[in-house]
Write a structure and sequence with these properties.
This protein is of the alpha+beta class and about 70 residues long. The protein is built from three helices and four strands; from the N terminus they run E-E-H-H-E-E-H. It has a single domain, classed as Arc Repressor Mutant, subunit A (Orthogonal Bundle), CATH 1.10.10.
Length: about 70
Amino acid sequence: MSNELFKENTIELNQEEIANLIGASRIQVARVLHLLKENKIIKTNRNSIKILDVKKLSELCSKDVLKSN
């Protein structure tokens, strides 16, 4: 990801842009972001996502990768 889109643990993209990048629907992205917010892993604003707990997010990503293999 380009440096201009990711600064200080913040991703400067909205849900539609993320969905387009990963080939998912905006609704799917919104559901996952909601779960991450509930677990205090991220905080969202209109056009950005701030990662509050990098370690926890990394652990979740690793688990999902292992499940899909």
